[in-house]
Amino acid sequence: YDFMIIFHNEYLPLNQKYAKIYFVIGVVLWLATIVHPIRIPSFPSLSRRQLMFTYGGILSGSIPSVALSKSRIDGYPVQHVDGKDWITVLTSGQYFVLRQGGTEPLNSSPLVGETRRGVYVCAGCVAPLFDSTQKFDSGTGWPSFAAPRSSSVELLPSLLFSGSEVRCQRCGGHLGDVFVDGYKFPDTAAAVTGKRYCINGAALVFVPSDSDSGPLGGDGLSERRRPFWKNDQKALHYSRSQAI
C-alpha cells in the first residue's frame, strides 16, 4: 500500500515519468533480494517487505519517515468515515499526509503561526490531539508541540531516522515525527518535556476556544475537497468542548 503512493501522490518530488522508471528499478531490486537475500548488519530482522518499501522510498526521492512494519489501515478504531473511503472525505493534501504518510512543504500550513487558545484535532477523525498551551515556535516551518494529549497519539520508531513516527491513536493517520531535542528550545514547553513533536499542519484542524470563531483547517496544499468535519456539527461540538 505504501509503495503504491508513488502513483497516487500529487506532490511527487520528481517528475512523474522518472518516478515510474524508478518504481520499476525498485521492483527489480526487490525481486533480486528474493533470489539473493541481502544481509544488513544494522537491521538483522529487516523483512523483504520492509526492504521493498525502503527501496521504493529512496528511489522515488521520498525517503519514508514512517514505521515500515505497521499498516495505517488495520488495527485502529476508525478505519474510515461513515462508510466512505478516506480519499472521498479528505482534501488531497490531507490524504497525502494522513493516509500516504507524506510531508508537507515547510511554511505551507496556516497553523504554523497560529497562537490562539484552543485544541488541535485530527483532520481525519476529529480526535483531540494537542492543546494550544503545548504549541511553541520551533522555527522549523511546521507546527510544533511539546507534548500531545494523554493517549491521543501512537509513537512508532522509524527505521531510517532518529525520531519516531507520530500517528493518531484513533484512525492511524500519519501526523509527523517526534524528536528528543526539546533542550534546543529554552523558555518553551519543549524545554520541560525534552521533546519536539513536529506535526504536519495538513493533518490537523484547529478549534479555537472562542465560540465565535470557526475551525481552521491546516491544509495549505489544496482545497480540492471539503473535509468532512465542516459538515459534522456533532464532531465539531465535541472538539470545541475539549478546547481549553
Structure description:
The protein is of the alpha+beta class and 244 residues long. 25% of the residues lie in helices and 16% in strands. It has seven helices and ten strands. A six-stranded antiparallel beta sheet has the order 3-4-8-7-6-5. A four-stranded antiparallel beta sheet has the order 2-1-9-10, with helices on one face. Strand 9 (204-208) and strand 10 (216-217) form a beta hairpin. The longest helix has 20 residues, at 16-35. The termini are far apart. Residues 1-15, 38-68 and 224-244 have low confidence and may be disordered.
Main traits of this protein?
25% helix, alpha+beta, 244 residues, six-stranded antiparallel β-sheet, single chain, disordered C terminus, disordered N terminus, globular, four-stranded antiparallel β-sheet
Largest pleated sheet = 6 strands, antiparallel
What form results from the Cα inertia axes? globular
How many helix segments?
Answer: 7
The number of strands is 10
Q: How large is the radius of gyration?
A: 18 Å
Q: Major sheet: order of its strands? A: 3-4-8-7-6-5
Q: What is the chains' assembly state?
A: single chain
Helix content: 25-40%
Distance between the termini: 38 Å
What value does the average pLDDT take? Answer: 75
Order of helices and strands: HHHHHEEEEEEEHEEEH
Structural class: alpha+beta
> Unreliable stretches, pLDDT < 50, 5 or more residues?
1-15, 38-68, 224-244
